[in-house]
Amino acid sequence: MPENSYAPPFLFGNGHIQTLFPVLFRKINSVYFKRERIETFDNDFLDLDWSTNNSSRLAIISHGLEGNSHRIYVKGMVKAINNNGWDALAWNYRSCSGEPNRLLKSYHNGITDDLSWVINHAKQKHPYKEIALIGFSLGGNLSLLYLGREKPDPIISKAVVFSVPCDLKASAKILAKPSNKIYMKRFLVMLHQKIKAKMNTMPGLIDDKGYEKIKDFKAFDDRYTAPIHGFKNAYDYYEKCSSKPFIPDIRIPTLIINAMNDPFLAQTCYPVKEAKANKFITLGMPKSGGHVGFVSFNNHDLYWSEKKAVNFL
Question: Using CB atoms within 10 A as the burial measure, which of 73, 212, 229, 278 is most buried?
Fold first, then answer.
């Protein structure tokens, strides 16, 4: 499969333009979700958004950092999947569905237990013959980590992931660069809102004193992500939750697509050696595409990434 075949529209070759255009200008119509709230194994909850057409096949879609099921890239993929005969389940990580979760812990790059819980629930809810995983950015890392580090459910048939920061430490350093300041500032503002929401629901357990001094992911993860979720520090979290070391252990057909001009990814986020050593992995590295971009204007409202995912499945 020519996974490097993406050609950007005229004037859309820049990675930042590819990244920002869909967020600011793309519209997706005719995607309607039915929300279901499920209880978790630790007395928390997850909100699942279903878009179904009574299919025997299901695609579970995992969003990116500070995303949710209504992000345009999720809805675009849901529409493409539905139009090609699959049910779609776009799940929201803890605290990402518009309501703070009940516990101090939230979500991070390695929440494979939550993904496993969602898969098991989907199996029990409907007699699906096969389930595929689709992940974007953090959701892509999470999907690969689940497939390579855990013992994946046999019902999982294939996986497709895009814009994956499979080396978390290196990606955090790239995002801390001045050229990515606009993204870093936005992420930190959104994460701060989550912190303040938890301060209201569980006063005394978390605070934001001096939050303005946090300028990058390492500082945020050292203060919040790592201690809240049982890691020694940010680097311990990055080491244990980066999917790259586990790609050689994946045993289902998996398509990884990382654009070479993705502003979020370091050079080590392109797992060429790991892909070559694993017959189950197809690695695409198109020259353009940005981060969860792959803009297209002449493909029946499908972006290139959505067409590739549908073809692979």
Answer: 73
d(CA 16, CA 154): 38
CATH number at residue 56: 3.40.50.1820
Residues 6 or more apart whose Cβ sits within 8 Å of residue 290: 14, 15, 16, 17, 18, 19, 20, 259, 261, 262, 263
Question: Quick one: which of 266, 259, 261, 109 has its CA closest to 174?
Answer: 266
Position 122 in a domain: yes
DSSP state string for 9-68: PTT--SHHHHHHHHHHH----S---EEEEEE-TTS-EEEEEEE--S-SEEEEEE--TT--
From CA 28, how far away is CA 18, in angstroms rounded?
Answer: 17
Is 228 among the domain residues?
A: no
What domain range is 295 assigned to?
15-167+251-312
> What are the Cα distances from residue 119, in Å, to 122, 144, 236?
5, 14, 27
Residue 183 in any domain: the answer is: no
Q: Please name the residues in contact with 15: beta carbons below 8 A apart, sequence gap of 6 or more.
A: 259, 261, 262, 263, 288, 289, 290, 291, 293
Give the CA angle between residues 101, 107, 108 to the nearest 5°: 170
Q: For 7-64, how does the pLDDT look when each residue is reduced to its tens digit (9 = 90+)?
A: 999 999 999 999 999 999 999 988 999 999 999 999 999 999 999 999 999 999 999 9
One-letter amino acid at 280 equals: F
How many domains is the chain partitioned into structurally? 1
308's tokens: 């590739």
Query: In the numeric block, which tokens belong to residue 104?
Result: 């101090």
Report the distance separating Cα 154 and Cα 269, nearest Å: 28
**Tens of pLDDT along 99-153?**
999 999 999 999 999 999 999 999 999 999 999 999 999 999 999 999 999 999 9
> Has residue 57 been placed in a domain?
yes
- Side-chain half-sphere exposure of 21, counting CA atoms within 13 A: 18
By three-state DSSP, how is residue 279 classified? coil
Q: Are 122 and 155 in contact (CB under 8 A)?
A: no
